[in-house]
Design brief:
This protein is of the alpha/beta class. 44% of the residues lie in helices and 18% in strands. The longest helix is centred in the first third of the chain and has 18 residues.
Length: 367
């Protein structure tokens, strides 16, 4: 995707249409919650920020600092109370309870388990504390949601894999390494990818990967190699970059002369370096700033009892017509690293082109 198209996609994603809190109220009523839209508060807010884990680099390196920065820009006196659940759903429920006890004004929640957190979301709603679902669509009476177009993420991955496979798609098999079954986004990625891949290439093995762990992906990939044979596997759909690392380690151990193409997501440093080196075919670059900005804007509006700005609405299994802002994903390959993650300031050339990758960077024109 060239830079013009990329800028257009992000601009469209962050264009806000006013959505009144009446929509939030009707959504909450459908779920049995109360309407927090009547609360009006001037002055500083205490905003709870709950992120799900620290295994994926994005949460501590990008999401948290970007959200905190935007909140400070919009409300210099506002306080952010931050916790990370470290991939433990029960810990996150306790963290939610603690936020409610502290009487924070609003919560930004990236759920470890979208279903199990629903009770805590309902408790927050009962305490007149609105909840912004961030990145993952938590169940329960949430007041707003921001994420990426997750089915589109899967479609972007599947399309890139098919394009790279070319004629090999007709003869070989691929392995699908999907994300955690407790993450609703994983199901959306899978659905989007399958909509592109099914009928075009044979899916030899498909796995749902516990907690998105690279070690689990490595174990599953070794199982697929044993079951299918390395000569039959022509590509791997990996739902994110961490798992792609575990998969590529297994593929290298299997002794391929040339590694089959492997997808990814999140544009982590290690993944971008693997792309530069030709070990990983692609990742999905998700501009975190528009998502983080939307979450901060929604949280402050809700905390003040003001209208939420959003571009559309979404339905969860429990709540209908949730105001939502969805950001467009971008396919990241060696051909557009300069025009995406470097141009946007996500990484410096020096972050990517360390001594180990200097030659590969020069060959790829990374500068």
């Amino acid at each position: 995707m060239n830079a013009t198209v990329r800028r257009t996609a992000v601009a469209l994603a962050v264009t806000a249409l006013s959505v009144s809190l009446a929509a939030c109220g009707s959504a909450k009523e459908a779920d049995g919650g109360s309407d927090s839209g009547e609360k009006k508060k001037d002055g500083p807010l205490n905003i709870g920020l709950l992120l799900p884990e620290d295994q994926t680099a994005r949460y501590e390196n990008f999401d948290r600092p970007l959200i905190e920065k935007k909140i400070k820009e919009l409300c210099g006196d506002c306080k952010v109370t931050y916790v990370n659940a470290k991939q433990d759903a029960s810990v996150q429920q306790q963290q939610m309870d603690s936020m409610i006890t502290k009487k924070v004004d609003v919560i930004i929640l990236d759920a470890v388990d979208s279903k199990s957190i629903a009770g805590s979301v309902k408790k927050a709603d009962g305490a007149n504390i609105p909840v912004v679902a961030y990145d993952r669509l938590a169940e329960g009476p949430i007041s707003a949601y921001t994420s990426f177009d997750n089915e589109e993420v899967g479609k972007v991955q599947g399309t890139a894999l098919l394009k790279e496979l070319g004629d090999e798609a007709e003869d070989g098999q691929i392995v699908m390494m999907n994300g955690s079954p407790t993450d609703p986004n994983a199901g959306s990625y899978k659905k989007g990818a399958e909509s592109v891949l099914k009928g075009k290439v044979k899916i030899g093995k498909s796995y749902d990967t516990t907690e998105w762990k690279p070690s689990e992906a490595n174990k599953n990939m070794n199982g697929a190699l044993a079951a299918l044979g390395k000569d039959k596997i022509v590509g791997v759909y990996s739902a994110n970059d961490g798992m792609a690392g575990g998969i590529i380690t297994a593929l290298k151990s299997a002794g391929y002369d040339k590694l089959p193409p492997v997808t990814g997501q999140d544009a982590e440093v290690a993944a971008v370096q693997r792309i530069i080196a030709g070990e990983q075919h692609m990742s999905v670059y998700k501009p975190y700033k528009p998502e983080a900005d939307a979450a901060a804007e929604m949280a402050i509006a809700l905390g003040r009892g003001e209208d939420v700005k959003a571009e559309t609405t979404v339905d969860s299994p429990t709540t209908k017509d949730v105001p939502a802002t969805l950001i467009s994903p971008i396919s990241l390959t060696v051909d557009n690293i300069n025009d995406t993650v470097i141009k946007d300031g996500l990484y410096k050339v020096s972050d990517l082109c360390t001594a180990k990758y200097k030659t590969a960077c020069e060959k790829a024109g990374i500068k």
